[in-house]
């Protein structure tokens, strides 16, 4: 029989072993449980991240493929089937909405792009149209020299498009440059944009503000050409004055001048000198050389230009208005009313029109120019102030005009026509016409003497008793052309002693 005291240590070792085994087994079970829990947690987290990323960036077809793989890997709990169906519907609705938004967004973008392209194309066309509409030539005066007749003549020409009425905004010295340019663009907007058409405007007073016309047109149309008409000073002053008289009564009839606001018409023989002018009419309005000098084609003395400025103006006003010229590259075509209305010689008249045609680069010939804008309120139908300048009481006035006319004619012939930028047609006929300015057209005996004498070298038959043309020409040759830069890009004239 075994003693219990002898087996006690053995039992204690067995109990300790069992205790250690149970502890180890529990540790293994806990570790396995923790590992399984961690694995499941990581799996669920990765699935959620993938689903959220797919909703944001992956295409609908890829989402469906993921959903099918997810169904194969795990079986949903029966209670979750209804919730999963709702989730599918929500995803499908969101996907459909996104597709709709993308489609509408793409359509809107494409439509907006088309609108932008269309607007940019139309704006480019407008800009191109504006760029094409440059002024090609201007009928620049003088008043009552057939400018309206030329307007109608060019209006009928297939290669020309001219504004239907006077457009003097670009040459108006009382407006700033911005307004002047807008007035010019307004006039050009009515004309054809075709590059085969010559665009033109008519402004008979442009030569009276030649400096402003040159400065502004030089920026807009540096290749534009000037067409300038001349006329015997005596006939021009009478026609210009009677035109203003008729205009005065027309305004009264239209309600423009009533009662105490009615203007008093001054007598013609009081309009002597620029400071005595009435609506632009004075003896100085026929001194063509004073205005043609401002084109900068000849040598000019400052005191000559200074003489035409009204005495009431300040020095600054004088500089801004007339006491400045600007040399330029504009071409000028000079003609006389005698040439324009020449009905005595058909061949000579045709030659004149051909000269004007070639000057303006027209391919088709000009038709004979008619007489337009005639003043019918003369003679028996005239107003009380309408004048006949050939009356004896205007003899002293005519002498002033004839004296000035002879001076203007010599300057044009021997100085202005020397410039390569100044052209005439039928030079002999032109010179014969301007040389008659030194003769009183109302004096028939003087006219007869003038017709029978030669004026090629001298002008002794002129009533002003001026020096011979050759003497004047020699002085003009010795004269120097001196310019000094002034403010606002003007060129002021320095006096030059002979």
Concise synopsis of the structure shown:
The protein is α/β, with parallel strands linked by helices and about 500 residues long. It is built from 16 helices and eight strands.
Protein model, in words:
The chain is an alpha/beta fold and 498 residues long. It has a single domain (142-493), classed as Rossmann fold (3-Layer(aba) Sandwich), CATH 3.40.50. It is 51% helix and 7% strand. It contains 16 helices and 8 strands. The chain has helices spanning 4-57, 60-73, 81-132, 147-155, 177-188, 210-220, 233-253, 288-292, 302-306, 315-321, 337-340, 346-359, 395-414, 427-435, 444-452, 469-478; strands at 137-141, 160-162, 198-202, 225-230, 331-336, 422-424, 483-485, 491-493. The strands form 2 sheets. It has a 6-stranded parallel β-sheet. It has a two-stranded antiparallel ribbon with strand order 7-8. The longest helix is centred in the N-terminal third of the chain and has 54 residues, at 4-57. Residues 49-65, 120-130 and 453-498 have low confidence and may be disordered.
Output the helix-strand order.
HHHEHEHEHEHHHHEHHHEHHHEE
What number of structural domains do the residues give? Answer: 1
CATH class descriptor: Alpha Beta
Name the strands of the widest sheet in spatial order. 2-3-1-4-5-6
Overall structural class, as computed from helix and strand content, comes to alpha/beta
Rg over CA atoms: 48 Å
* CATH topology annotation: Rossmann fold
Name the shape in a single word. rod-shaped
Distance between the termini: 170 Å
Our count of helices gives: 16
Mean pLDDT: 75
Helix percent reads: 40-55%
Per CATH, the architecture is 3-Layer(aba) Sandwich
How many beta-strand segments?
8
CATH superfamily: P-loop containing nucleotide triphosphate hydrolases
Biggest β-sheet: count, sense, barrel? 6 strands, parallel
Which consecutive residue ranges, at least 5 long each, have pLDDT under 50?
49-65, 120-130, 453-498
Beta-strand share of residues: 5-15%
């Amino acid at each position: 029989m075994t003693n219990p005291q002898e087996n006690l240590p053995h039992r204690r070792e067995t109990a300790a072993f069992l205790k250690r085994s149970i502890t180890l087994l529990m540790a293994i079970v806990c570790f396995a449980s923790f590992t399984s829990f961690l694995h499941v947690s990581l799996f669920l987290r990765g699935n959620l991240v993938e689903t959220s990323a797919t909703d944001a960036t992956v295409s609908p077809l890829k989402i469906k493929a993921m959903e099918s793989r997810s169904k194969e890997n795990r079986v949903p709990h029966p209670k979750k089937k209804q919730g999963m169906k709702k989730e599918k519907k929500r995803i499908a609705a969101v996907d459909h909405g996104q597709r709709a938004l993308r489609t509408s967004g793409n359509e809107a973008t494409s439509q907006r792009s088309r609108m932008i392209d269309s607007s940019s194309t139309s704006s480019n066309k407008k800009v191109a149209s504006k760029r094409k509409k440059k002024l090609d030539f201007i009928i620049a005066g003088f008043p009552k020299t057939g400018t309206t007749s030329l307007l109608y003549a060019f209006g009928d020409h297939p290669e020309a498009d001219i504004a239907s009425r006077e457009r003097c905004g670009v040459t108006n010295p009382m407006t700033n440059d911005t307004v002047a340019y807008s007035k010019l663009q307004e006039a050009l907007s009515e004309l054809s944009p075709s590059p085969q058409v010559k665009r033109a405007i008519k402004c008979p007073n442009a030569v009276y503000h030649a400096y402003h016309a040159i400065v502004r047109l030089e920026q807009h149309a540096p290749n534009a050409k000037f067409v300038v008409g001349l006329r015997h000073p005596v006939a021009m002053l009478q026609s210009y004055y009677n035109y203003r008289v008729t205009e005065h009564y027309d305004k009264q009839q239209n309600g423009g001048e009533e009662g105490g606001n009615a203007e008093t018409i001054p007598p013609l023989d009081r309009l002597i000198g620029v400071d005595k002018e009435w609506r632009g009419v004075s003896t100085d309005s026929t001194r063509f050389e004073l205005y043609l000098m401002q084109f900068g084609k000849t040598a000019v003395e400052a005191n000559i230009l200074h003489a035409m400025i009204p005495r009431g103006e300040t020095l600054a006003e004088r500089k801004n208005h007339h006491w400045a010229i600007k040399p330029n590259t504009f071409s000028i075509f000079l003609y006389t009313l005698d040439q324009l209305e020449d009905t005595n010689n058909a061949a000579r008249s045709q030659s004149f029109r051909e000269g004007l045609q070639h000057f303006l680069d027209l391919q088709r010939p000009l038709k004979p120019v008619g007489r337009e804008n005639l003043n019918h309120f003369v003679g028996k139908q005239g107003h009380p102030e309408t004048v006949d300048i050939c009356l004896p009481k205007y003899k002293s006035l005519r002498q002033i005009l004839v004296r000035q006319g002879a001076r203007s004619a010599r300057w044009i012939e021997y100085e202005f026509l020397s410039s390569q930028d100044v052209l005439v047609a039928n030079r002999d006929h032109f010179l014969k016409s301007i040389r008659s300015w030194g003769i009183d057209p109302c004096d028939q005996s003087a006219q007869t003497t003038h017709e029978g004498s030669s004026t090629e070298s001298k002008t002794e038959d002129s009533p002003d008793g001026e020096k011979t043309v050759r003497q004047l020409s020699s002085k003009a040759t010795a004269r120097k052309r001196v310019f000094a830069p002034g403010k606002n890009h003007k060129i002021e004239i320095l006096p030059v002693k002979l």
